[in-house]
Protein backbone atom coordinates (compact mmCIF):
# COMPACT_ATOMS: atom_id res chain seq x y z
CA UNK A 1 0.00 0.00 0.00
CA UNK A 2 1.54 3.33 -1.09
CA UNK A 3 2.34 6.11 1.35
CA UNK A 4 -0.14 8.43 -0.37
CA UNK A 5 -2.96 5.90 -0.08
CA UNK A 6 -2.23 5.28 3.60
CA UNK A 7 -2.26 8.98 4.37
CA UNK A 8 -5.41 9.51 2.28
CA UNK A 9 -7.28 6.85 4.29
CA UNK A 10 -5.87 8.28 7.52
CA UNK A 11 -6.95 11.80 6.60
CA UNK A 12 -10.45 10.67 5.56
CA UNK A 13 -10.91 8.80 8.84
CA UNK A 14 -9.71 11.87 10.74
CA UNK A 15 -12.17 14.07 8.83
CA UNK A 16 -15.00 11.67 9.70
CA UNK A 17 -14.17 11.85 13.41
CA UNK A 18 -13.70 15.61 13.11
CA UNK A 19 -17.31 16.00 11.88
CA UNK A 20 -18.65 14.25 14.99
CA UNK A 21 -16.33 16.34 17.16
CA UNK A 22 -17.70 19.54 15.65
CA UNK A 23 -21.20 18.32 16.40
CA UNK A 24 -20.29 18.06 20.08
CA UNK A 25 -19.58 21.79 19.99
CA UNK A 26 -22.94 22.27 18.25
CA UNK A 27 -24.66 20.38 21.08
CA UNK A 28 -22.99 22.60 23.69
CA UNK A 29 -24.01 25.72 21.74
CA UNK A 30 -27.64 24.52 21.47
CA UNK A 31 -27.65 23.71 25.17
CA UNK A 32 -26.38 27.15 26.16
CA UNK A 33 -28.83 28.79 23.77
CA UNK A 34 -32.00 26.90 24.73
CA UNK A 35 -31.64 25.42 28.21
CA UNK A 36 -32.95 28.37 30.24
CA UNK A 37 -36.01 28.73 28.02
CA UNK A 38 -36.71 24.99 28.19
CA UNK A 39 -36.35 24.94 31.96
CA UNK A 40 -38.69 27.92 32.27
CA UNK A 41 -41.37 26.16 30.20
CA UNK A 42 -41.01 23.02 32.32
CA UNK A 43 -41.40 25.06 35.50
CA UNK A 44 -44.51 26.76 34.12
CA UNK A 45 -46.13 23.40 33.39
CA UNK A 46 -45.29 22.12 36.88
CA UNK A 47 -46.65 25.26 38.57
CA UNK A 48 -49.89 25.33 36.55
CA UNK A 49 -50.75 21.73 37.45
CA UNK A 50 -50.62 21.97 41.24
CA UNK A 51 -54.42 22.08 41.59
CA UNK A 52 -54.77 18.90 39.51
CA UNK A 53 -53.91 16.65 42.45
CA UNK A 54 -56.80 17.98 44.51
CA UNK A 55 -59.30 16.31 42.16
CA UNK A 56 -58.37 12.64 42.43
CA UNK A 57 -61.27 11.39 40.32
CA UNK A 58 -59.96 13.34 37.32
CA UNK A 59 -56.48 11.88 37.43
CA UNK A 60 -55.66 9.71 34.39
CA UNK A 61 -55.03 6.00 34.76
CA UNK A 62 -51.35 5.07 34.67
CA UNK A 63 -49.72 1.69 34.10
CA UNK A 64 -46.14 1.25 35.28
CA UNK A 65 -44.22 -1.52 33.51
CA UNK A 66 -41.13 -3.24 34.93
CA UNK A 67 -39.48 -5.59 32.40
CA UNK A 68 -37.40 -8.23 34.20
CA UNK A 69 -35.16 -11.12 33.23
CA UNK A 70 -33.23 -12.94 35.96
CA UNK A 71 -32.82 -9.90 38.21
CA UNK A 72 -32.60 -11.62 41.59
CA UNK A 73 -30.54 -8.84 43.17
CA UNK A 74 -32.78 -5.90 42.28
CA UNK A 75 -36.28 -7.18 41.52
CA UNK A 76 -37.83 -6.57 44.95
CA UNK A 77 -36.28 -3.12 45.36
CA UNK A 78 -37.60 -2.03 41.98
CA UNK A 79 -41.16 -3.29 42.48
CA UNK A 80 -41.50 -1.80 45.96
CA UNK A 81 -40.13 1.57 44.76
CA UNK A 82 -42.74 1.67 42.00
CA UNK A 83 -45.50 0.75 44.44
CA UNK A 84 -44.35 3.55 46.77
CA UNK A 85 -44.91 6.24 44.11
CA UNK A 86 -47.48 8.79 45.24
CA UNK A 87 -50.49 8.05 43.03
CA UNK A 88 -53.98 6.73 43.87
CA UNK A 89 -53.95 2.93 44.02
CA UNK A 90 -57.19 2.63 42.09
CA UNK A 91 -55.71 4.62 39.18
CA UNK A 92 -52.28 2.98 39.12
CA UNK A 93 -51.67 -0.45 37.63
CA UNK A 94 -48.29 -2.14 38.08
CA UNK A 95 -47.16 -4.66 35.47
CA UNK A 96 -44.17 -6.89 36.19
CA UNK A 97 -43.13 -8.24 32.79
CA UNK A 98 -41.20 -11.26 34.00
CA UNK A 99 -39.23 -13.41 31.55
CA UNK A 100 -37.04 -14.83 34.33
CA UNK A 101 -35.93 -18.44 34.43
CA UNK A 102 -34.28 -18.45 37.87
CA UNK A 103 -35.20 -17.75 41.50
CA UNK A 104 -36.26 -14.22 40.55
CA UNK A 105 -39.72 -15.65 39.79
CA UNK A 106 -40.27 -16.65 43.41
CA UNK A 107 -39.25 -13.23 44.72
CA UNK A 108 -41.58 -11.46 42.27
CA UNK A 109 -44.52 -13.68 43.21
CA UNK A 110 -43.93 -13.07 46.91
CA UNK A 111 -43.64 -9.28 46.58
CA UNK A 112 -46.67 -9.11 44.27
CA UNK A 113 -48.77 -11.06 46.76
CA UNK A 114 -47.71 -8.75 49.60
CA UNK A 115 -48.72 -5.68 47.58
CA UNK A 116 -52.06 -7.12 46.49
CA UNK A 117 -52.95 -7.71 50.12
CA UNK A 118 -52.65 -3.97 50.81
CA UNK A 119 -54.68 -2.90 47.80
CA UNK A 120 -52.25 -2.50 44.91
CA UNK A 121 -53.31 -3.43 41.38
CA UNK A 122 -50.27 -5.49 40.38
CA UNK A 123 -50.12 -7.95 37.52
CA UNK A 124 -47.27 -10.40 36.85
CA UNK A 125 -47.12 -11.21 33.15
CA UNK A 126 -45.10 -14.20 31.98
CA UNK A 127 -44.65 -15.42 28.43
CA UNK A 128 -44.07 -18.92 27.14
CA UNK A 129 -41.06 -17.66 25.15
CA UNK A 130 -38.72 -14.66 25.00
CA UNK A 131 -39.49 -13.61 21.44
CA UNK A 132 -38.45 -9.99 21.03
CA UNK A 133 -36.79 -9.95 24.46
CA UNK A 134 -37.55 -6.65 26.25
CA UNK A 135 -39.47 -5.24 23.27
CA UNK A 136 -41.59 -8.40 23.14
CA UNK A 137 -42.36 -8.16 26.84
CA UNK A 138 -43.34 -4.49 26.52
CA UNK A 139 -45.49 -5.31 23.49
CA UNK A 140 -47.37 -7.93 25.49
CA UNK A 141 -47.73 -5.62 28.49
CA UNK A 142 -49.04 -2.74 26.37
CA UNK A 143 -51.84 -4.92 25.04
CA UNK A 144 -52.98 -5.66 28.61
CA UNK A 145 -52.36 -2.20 30.09
CA UNK A 146 -55.32 -0.37 31.63
CA UNK A 147 -53.56 2.98 31.75
CA UNK A 148 -53.77 5.88 29.35
CA UNK A 149 -50.11 6.51 30.13
CA UNK A 150 -47.35 3.91 30.45
CA UNK A 151 -44.34 4.48 32.70
CA UNK A 152 -41.36 2.17 32.13
CA UNK A 153 -38.57 1.31 34.57
CA UNK A 154 -35.74 -1.16 34.17
CA UNK A 155 -35.14 -3.33 37.21
CA UNK A 156 -32.21 -1.31 38.58
CA UNK A 157 -34.08 2.01 38.61
CA UNK A 158 -35.53 3.40 41.84
CA UNK A 159 -38.05 6.19 41.14
CA UNK A 160 -38.81 8.87 43.72
CA UNK A 161 -42.30 9.04 45.21
CA UNK A 162 -43.28 12.12 43.20
CA UNK A 163 -42.20 10.77 39.79
CA UNK A 164 -45.70 10.42 38.32
CA UNK A 165 -46.97 13.65 39.85
CA UNK A 166 -44.12 15.59 38.28
CA UNK A 167 -44.28 14.11 34.78
CA UNK A 168 -47.96 13.35 34.07
CA UNK A 169 -48.84 17.10 33.91
CA UNK A 170 -46.76 17.48 30.75
CA UNK A 171 -49.19 15.21 28.90
CA UNK A 172 -52.23 17.00 30.29
CA UNK A 173 -50.90 20.44 29.31
CA UNK A 174 -50.07 19.43 25.72
CA UNK A 175 -52.10 16.80 23.88
CA UNK A 176 -49.34 16.45 21.26
CA UNK A 177 -46.74 15.20 23.74
CA UNK A 178 -46.33 11.46 23.43
CA UNK A 179 -43.18 10.91 25.49
CA UNK A 180 -41.67 12.48 28.61
CA UNK A 181 -38.16 11.38 29.60
CA UNK A 182 -36.57 11.92 33.03
CA UNK A 183 -32.84 12.05 33.77
CA UNK A 184 -30.85 9.09 34.99
CA UNK A 185 -29.15 9.36 38.38
CA UNK A 186 -26.48 7.10 39.86
CA UNK A 187 -26.96 4.79 42.83
CA UNK A 188 -23.37 3.55 42.75
CA UNK A 189 -21.47 6.48 41.25
CA UNK A 190 -18.73 6.22 43.91
CA UNK A 191 -18.37 2.42 43.80
CA UNK A 192 -15.10 2.75 41.85
CA UNK A 193 -13.16 4.98 39.49
CA UNK A 194 -14.73 3.03 36.64
CA UNK A 195 -18.31 3.82 37.75
CA UNK A 196 -17.44 7.48 38.40
CA UNK A 197 -16.06 7.67 34.87
CA UNK A 198 -19.25 6.23 33.38
CA UNK A 199 -21.40 8.65 35.37
CA UNK A 200 -19.72 11.55 33.57
CA UNK A 201 -20.68 10.06 30.21
CA UNK A 202 -24.28 9.54 31.31
CA UNK A 203 -24.51 13.09 32.67
CA UNK A 204 -23.17 14.42 29.38
CA UNK A 205 -25.81 12.60 27.39
CA UNK A 206 -28.71 13.74 29.55
CA UNK A 207 -27.74 17.21 30.76
CA UNK A 208 -26.29 18.45 27.47
CA UNK A 209 -27.41 16.27 24.55
CA UNK A 210 -30.96 15.45 25.62
CA UNK A 211 -31.54 19.01 26.83
CA UNK A 212 -30.15 20.47 23.59
CA UNK A 213 -32.31 18.22 21.43
CA UNK A 214 -35.51 18.54 23.46
CA UNK A 215 -35.36 22.32 23.82
CA UNK A 216 -34.22 23.02 20.23
CA UNK A 217 -36.95 21.20 18.32
CA UNK A 218 -34.74 18.23 17.38
CA UNK A 219 -35.59 14.55 17.58
CA UNK A 220 -34.68 13.06 20.96
CA UNK A 221 -35.02 9.52 22.23
CA UNK A 222 -36.62 7.54 25.01
CA UNK A 223 -33.77 5.96 26.96
CA UNK A 224 -35.56 2.68 27.55
CA UNK A 225 -36.46 3.48 31.15
CA UNK A 226 -37.34 6.35 33.52
CA UNK A 227 -39.88 7.79 31.13
CA UNK A 228 -43.60 7.82 30.38
CA UNK A 229 -45.37 7.11 27.09
CA UNK A 230 -48.86 8.07 26.01
CA UNK A 231 -50.38 4.71 25.05
CA UNK A 232 -52.03 6.24 21.99
CA UNK A 233 -48.59 7.36 20.77
CA UNK A 234 -47.19 3.84 20.93
CA UNK A 235 -50.19 2.46 19.05
CA UNK A 236 -50.16 5.12 16.32
CA UNK A 237 -46.40 4.74 15.83
CA UNK A 238 -46.85 1.02 15.15
CA UNK A 239 -46.15 -0.42 18.60
CA UNK A 240 -42.97 -1.94 19.97
CA UNK A 241 -40.78 -3.54 17.28
CA UNK A 242 -38.04 -6.05 17.97
CA UNK A 243 -36.07 -5.93 14.72
CA UNK A 244 -33.36 -3.79 16.36
CA UNK A 245 -31.56 -4.05 19.70
CA UNK A 246 -32.63 -0.51 20.63
CA UNK A 247 -36.39 -0.75 20.58
CA UNK A 248 -36.57 2.47 22.61
CA UNK A 249 -34.67 4.55 20.04
CA UNK A 250 -36.64 2.97 17.20
CA UNK A 251 -40.05 3.73 18.75
CA UNK A 252 -38.96 7.27 19.69
CA UNK A 253 -38.13 8.15 16.11
CA UNK A 254 -41.20 6.46 14.65
CA UNK A 255 -43.40 8.35 17.09
CA UNK A 256 -41.84 11.70 16.24
CA UNK A 257 -42.03 10.94 12.50
CA UNK A 258 -45.75 10.31 13.09
CA UNK A 259 -46.09 13.86 14.44
CA UNK A 260 -45.85 13.29 18.20
CA UNK A 261 -43.64 15.46 20.43
CA UNK A 262 -41.11 14.24 22.98
CA UNK A 263 -39.73 16.27 25.87
CA UNK A 264 -37.10 15.97 28.57
CA UNK A 265 -37.34 17.00 32.23
CA UNK A 266 -33.77 17.25 33.61
CA UNK A 267 -34.94 18.15 37.14
CA UNK A 268 -36.63 14.78 37.64
CA UNK A 269 -33.83 12.32 38.39
CA UNK A 270 -34.28 8.55 38.74
CA UNK A 271 -31.33 6.78 40.43
CA UNK A 272 -30.03 3.66 38.71
CA UNK A 273 -27.08 1.29 38.77
CA UNK A 274 -24.02 1.92 36.65
CA UNK A 275 -22.34 -1.25 35.30
CA UNK A 276 -19.59 -2.16 37.75
CA UNK A 277 -17.43 -4.31 35.48
CA UNK A 278 -15.88 -3.80 32.07
CA UNK A 279 -17.69 -6.85 30.66
CA UNK A 280 -21.07 -5.53 31.82
CA UNK A 281 -20.30 -2.07 30.42
CA UNK A 282 -19.21 -3.56 27.09
CA UNK A 283 -22.40 -5.63 26.81
CA UNK A 284 -24.48 -2.50 27.41
CA UNK A 285 -22.49 -0.44 24.91
CA UNK A 286 -22.49 -3.27 22.36
CA UNK A 287 -26.29 -3.39 22.45
CA UNK A 288 -26.61 0.38 22.13
CA UNK A 289 -24.02 0.57 19.32
CA UNK A 290 -25.47 -2.24 17.26
CA UNK A 291 -29.06 -1.20 17.87
CA UNK A 292 -28.54 2.45 17.00
CA UNK A 293 -26.90 1.60 13.65
CA UNK A 294 -29.71 -0.90 12.96
CA UNK A 295 -32.21 1.88 13.68
CA UNK A 296 -30.33 4.24 11.37
CA UNK A 297 -30.55 1.77 8.49
CA UNK A 298 -34.21 1.15 9.23
CA UNK A 299 -35.45 4.72 9.58
CA UNK A 300 -33.07 7.03 7.75
CA UNK A 301 -34.88 6.63 4.39
CA UNK A 302 -38.07 7.84 6.12
CA UNK A 303 -36.17 10.72 7.72
CA UNK A 304 -34.81 11.82 4.34
CA UNK A 305 -38.31 11.82 2.81
CA UNK A 306 -39.87 13.62 5.79
CA UNK A 307 -40.75 17.32 6.04
CA UNK A 308 -38.07 17.94 8.65
CA UNK A 309 -35.65 20.82 8.10
CA UNK A 310 -32.15 20.10 6.79
CA UNK A 311 -30.69 20.89 10.22
CA UNK A 312 -33.10 18.45 11.92
CA UNK A 313 -32.15 15.73 9.43
CA UNK A 314 -28.43 16.33 9.91
CA UNK A 315 -28.81 16.16 13.67
CA UNK A 316 -30.87 12.98 13.39
CA UNK A 317 -28.03 11.50 11.30
CA UNK A 318 -25.41 12.35 13.93
CA UNK A 319 -27.69 11.07 16.69
CA UNK A 320 -28.42 7.69 15.08
CA UNK A 321 -24.90 7.03 13.79
CA UNK A 322 -22.84 8.24 16.74
CA UNK A 323 -21.38 4.79 17.39
CA UNK A 324 -20.01 4.67 13.84
CA UNK A 325 -17.01 6.60 15.15
CA UNK A 326 -15.54 3.49 16.77
CA UNK A 327 -14.49 1.60 13.61
CA UNK A 328 -12.71 4.76 12.47
CA UNK A 329 -10.96 5.06 15.83
CA UNK A 330 -9.68 1.49 15.48
CA UNK A 331 -8.65 2.24 11.89
CA UNK A 332 -6.61 5.26 13.01
CA UNK A 333 -4.94 3.15 15.69
CA UNK A 334 -4.01 0.44 13.18
CA UNK A 335 -2.74 2.93 10.62
CA UNK A 336 -0.57 4.66 13.21
CA UNK A 337 2.56 2.66 12.42
CA UNK A 338 2.18 2.85 8.60
CA UNK A 339 1.79 6.62 8.99
CA UNK A 340 5.06 6.64 10.94
CA UNK A 341 6.75 4.89 8.04
CA UNK A 342 5.17 7.35 5.61
CA UNK A 343 6.47 10.19 7.75
CA UNK A 344 9.92 8.63 7.59
CA UNK A 345 9.65 8.87 3.81
CA UNK A 346 9.61 12.69 4.27
CA UNK A 347 5.85 13.21 3.96
CA UNK A 348 5.07 16.90 4.43
CA UNK A 349 5.21 18.10 8.02
CA UNK A 350 2.38 20.47 7.16
CA UNK A 351 0.12 17.51 6.37
CA UNK A 352 0.99 15.89 9.70
CA UNK A 353 0.16 19.14 11.50
CA UNK A 354 -3.15 19.43 9.62
CA UNK A 355 -4.15 15.88 10.54
CA UNK A 356 -3.05 16.47 14.12
CA UNK A 357 -5.18 19.60 14.29
CA UNK A 358 -8.25 17.68 13.12
CA UNK A 359 -7.56 14.99 15.68
CA UNK A 360 -7.17 17.62 18.41
CA UNK A 361 -10.56 19.13 17.69
CA UNK A 362 -12.17 15.68 17.46
CA UNK A 363 -10.54 14.52 20.71
CA UNK A 364 -11.28 17.54 22.86
CA UNK A 365 -14.84 18.17 21.60
CA UNK A 366 -16.45 15.40 23.71
CA UNK A 367 -14.34 16.53 26.68
CA UNK A 368 -15.78 20.03 26.30
CA UNK A 369 -19.31 18.63 26.30
CA UNK A 370 -18.66 16.52 29.39
CA UNK A 371 -16.98 19.42 31.18
CA UNK A 372 -20.14 21.50 30.74
CA UNK A 373 -22.32 18.61 31.93
CA UNK A 374 -20.30 18.19 35.13
CA UNK A 375 -20.42 21.91 35.76
CA UNK A 376 -24.20 21.78 35.36
CA UNK A 377 -24.36 18.78 37.70
CA UNK A 378 -22.45 20.70 40.37
CA UNK A 379 -19.38 18.44 40.36
CA UNK A 380 -16.25 20.07 41.82
CA UNK A 381 -13.71 21.10 39.18
CA UNK A 382 -10.96 18.92 40.71
CA UNK A 383 -13.08 15.80 40.20
CA UNK A 384 -13.84 16.93 36.65
CA UNK A 385 -10.12 17.34 36.01
CA UNK A 386 -9.49 13.67 36.82
CA UNK A 387 -12.72 12.15 35.58
CA UNK A 388 -12.84 13.53 32.04
CA UNK A 389 -9.45 12.14 30.92
CA UNK A 390 -10.47 8.75 32.32
CA UNK A 391 -13.68 8.96 30.28
CA UNK A 392 -11.61 9.64 27.15
CA UNK A 393 -9.48 6.54 27.85
CA UNK A 394 -12.60 4.47 28.49
CA UNK A 395 -14.29 5.66 25.29
CA UNK A 396 -11.21 4.73 23.28
CA UNK A 397 -10.77 1.43 25.10
CA UNK A 398 -14.18 0.02 24.16
CA UNK A 399 -13.70 0.87 20.47
CA UNK A 400 -12.89 -2.74 19.45
CA UNK A 401 -16.04 -4.10 21.10
CA UNK A 402 -18.21 -1.36 19.59
CA UNK A 403 -16.56 -1.81 16.19
CA UNK A 404 -17.71 -5.40 16.23
CA UNK A 405 -21.22 -4.20 17.08
CA UNK A 406 -21.26 -1.69 14.22
CA UNK A 407 -19.93 -4.24 11.72
CA UNK A 408 -22.52 -6.81 12.82
CA UNK A 409 -25.28 -4.28 12.24
CA UNK A 410 -23.93 -3.45 8.76
CA UNK A 411 -23.59 -7.14 7.86
CA UNK A 412 -27.02 -7.97 9.37
CA UNK A 413 -25.56 -10.49 11.82
CA UNK A 414 -28.27 -11.62 14.25
CA UNK A 415 -27.61 -11.49 17.99
CA UNK A 416 -29.75 -11.78 21.10
CA UNK A 417 -30.53 -9.13 23.68
CA UNK A 418 -27.75 -9.34 26.29
CA UNK A 419 -28.97 -7.66 29.45
CA UNK A 420 -26.61 -5.73 31.69
CA UNK A 421 -25.97 -7.54 35.02
CA UNK A 422 -27.06 -5.68 38.18
CA UNK A 423 -25.82 -6.02 41.73
CA UNK A 424 -28.46 -4.32 43.85
CA UNK A 425 -28.24 -3.60 47.55
CA UNK A 426 -27.53 -7.23 48.32
CA UNK A 427 -25.40 -9.51 46.16
CA UNK A 428 -27.52 -12.67 46.29
CA UNK A 429 -26.39 -13.96 42.92
CA UNK A 430 -23.52 -12.95 40.65
CA UNK A 431 -24.57 -12.42 37.05
CA UNK A 432 -21.73 -12.03 34.55
CA UNK A 433 -21.18 -11.39 30.85
CA UNK A 434 -17.98 -12.94 29.56
CA UNK A 435 -15.99 -11.63 26.59
CA UNK A 436 -12.61 -13.37 27.07
CA UNK A 437 -11.03 -12.59 23.66
CA UNK A 438 -11.56 -8.83 23.56
CA UNK A 439 -9.24 -7.89 26.48
CA UNK A 440 -6.38 -9.74 24.79
CA UNK A 441 -6.98 -7.89 21.51
CA UNK A 442 -7.16 -4.59 23.39
CA UNK A 443 -3.84 -5.20 25.13
CA UNK A 444 -2.18 -6.24 21.85
CA UNK A 445 -3.44 -3.08 20.13
CA UNK A 446 -2.20 -1.04 23.10
CA UNK A 447 1.29 -2.50 22.70
CA UNK A 448 1.14 -1.82 18.95
CA UNK A 449 0.19 1.82 19.57
CA UNK A 450 3.00 2.20 22.12
CA UNK A 451 5.48 1.01 19.50
CA UNK A 452 4.05 3.50 16.97
CA UNK A 453 4.37 6.31 19.53
CA UNK A 454 8.01 5.40 20.13
CA UNK A 455 8.63 5.54 16.38
CA UNK A 456 6.98 8.96 16.13
CA UNK A 457 9.25 10.32 18.86
CA UNK A 458 12.29 8.75 17.21
CA UNK A 459 11.45 10.63 14.01
CA UNK A 460 10.65 13.80 16.02
CA UNK A 461 7.09 13.91 14.64
CA UNK A 462 5.60 15.17 17.89
CA UNK A 463 2.18 16.35 16.83
CA UNK A 464 0.34 13.06 16.22
CA UNK A 465 2.16 10.96 18.84
CA UNK A 466 0.05 12.12 21.83
CA UNK A 467 -3.14 10.90 20.15
CA UNK A 468 -1.70 7.46 19.57
CA UNK A 469 -0.64 7.64 23.20
CA UNK A 470 -4.29 8.12 24.18
CA UNK A 471 -5.16 5.02 22.16
CA UNK A 472 -2.36 3.07 23.82
CA UNK A 473 -3.49 4.02 27.33
CA UNK A 474 -7.19 3.53 26.54
CA UNK A 475 -6.87 0.06 25.05
CA UNK A 476 -4.43 -0.98 27.75
CA UNK A 477 -6.61 0.34 30.57
CA UNK A 478 -9.78 -1.41 29.41
CA UNK A 479 -7.97 -4.62 28.46
CA UNK A 480 -6.07 -5.00 31.74
CA UNK A 481 -9.01 -3.92 33.91
CA UNK A 482 -11.27 -6.37 32.08
CA UNK A 483 -8.91 -9.29 32.67
CA UNK A 484 -8.43 -8.39 36.35
CA UNK A 485 -12.18 -8.13 36.91
CA UNK A 486 -12.89 -11.38 35.08
CA UNK A 487 -10.26 -13.16 37.16
CA UNK A 488 -11.66 -11.77 40.42
CA UNK A 489 -15.27 -12.49 39.41
CA UNK A 490 -14.35 -16.01 38.34
CA UNK A 491 -12.81 -16.74 41.73
CA UNK A 492 -15.89 -15.45 43.55
CA UNK A 493 -18.19 -17.51 41.32
CA UNK A 494 -16.17 -20.69 41.90
CA UNK A 495 -16.20 -20.09 45.68
CA UNK A 496 -19.96 -19.56 45.61
CA UNK A 497 -20.53 -22.76 43.64
CA UNK A 498 -18.26 -24.68 46.01
CA UNK A 499 -20.15 -23.31 49.03
CA UNK A 500 -23.52 -24.20 47.50
CA UNK A 501 -22.48 -27.77 46.70
CA UNK A 502 -20.70 -28.47 50.01
CA UNK A 503 -22.46 -31.10 52.17
CA UNK A 504 -24.31 -29.75 55.18
CA UNK A 505 -22.83 -30.33 58.60
CA UNK A 506 -24.39 -33.19 60.56
Describe the structure.
With 506 residues, this protein is of the alpha/beta class. The chain has two domains: 3-21 and 323-497, no CATH class; 25-276, Spore Coat Polysaccharide Biosynthesis Protein SpsA, Chain A, CATH 3.90.550.10. The protein is built from 17 helices and seven strands. The protein has helices spanning 3-48, 75-83, 104-117, 133-144, 163-173, 193-214, 231-236, 247-257, 278-305, 310-320, 325-334, 336-344, 349-376, 381-397, 399-410, 437-458, 465-501, and strands at 62-68, 92-98, 121-125, 149-152, 177-184, 227-230, 261-270. The protein has a seven-stranded mixed sheet, with helices on both faces. Strand 1 (62-68), helix 2 (75-83) and strand 2 (92-98) form a beta-alpha-beta unit. Helix 1 (3-48) crosses helix 12 (336-344), helix 9 (278-305) runs antiparallel to helix 10 (310-320) and helix 12 (336-344) runs parallel beside helix 16.
Return Rg in Å. 24 Å
How does the helix and strand content classify structurally? alpha/beta
Number of strands: 7
CATH class identity of the largest domain: Alpha Beta
Q: Could you say how many structural domains there are in total? A: 2
Helix content, binned percent: 55-70%
Please name the CATH architecture of the largest domain: Alpha-Beta Complex
Q: In the CATH hierarchy, what is the superfamily of the largest domain?
A: Spore Coat Polysaccharide Biosynthesis Protein SpsA, Chain A
If strands are numbered along the chain, what order do they take across the biggest sheet? 3-2-1-4-6-5-7
Number of H- or I-type helical stretches: 17
Distance between the termini: 73 Å
The CATH topology of the largest domain: Spore Coat Polysaccharide Biosynthesis Protein SpsA, Chain A
Shape: globular
Amino acid sequence: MSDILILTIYCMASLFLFSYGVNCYVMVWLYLKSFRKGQWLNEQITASSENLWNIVDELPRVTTQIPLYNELNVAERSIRAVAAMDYPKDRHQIQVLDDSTDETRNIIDSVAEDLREVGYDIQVIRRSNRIGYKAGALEQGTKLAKGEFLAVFDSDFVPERDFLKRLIPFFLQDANIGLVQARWGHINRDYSLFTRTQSIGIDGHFLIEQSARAFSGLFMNFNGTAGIWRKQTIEEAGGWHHDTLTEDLDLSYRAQLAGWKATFVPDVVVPAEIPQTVSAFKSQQFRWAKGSIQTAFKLFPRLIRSDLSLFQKVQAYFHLTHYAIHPFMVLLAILGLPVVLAAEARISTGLIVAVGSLMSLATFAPSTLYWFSQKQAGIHWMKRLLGIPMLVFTGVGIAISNTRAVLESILHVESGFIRTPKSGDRMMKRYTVKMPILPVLEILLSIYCCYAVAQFFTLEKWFVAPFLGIYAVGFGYIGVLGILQETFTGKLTRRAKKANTAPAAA
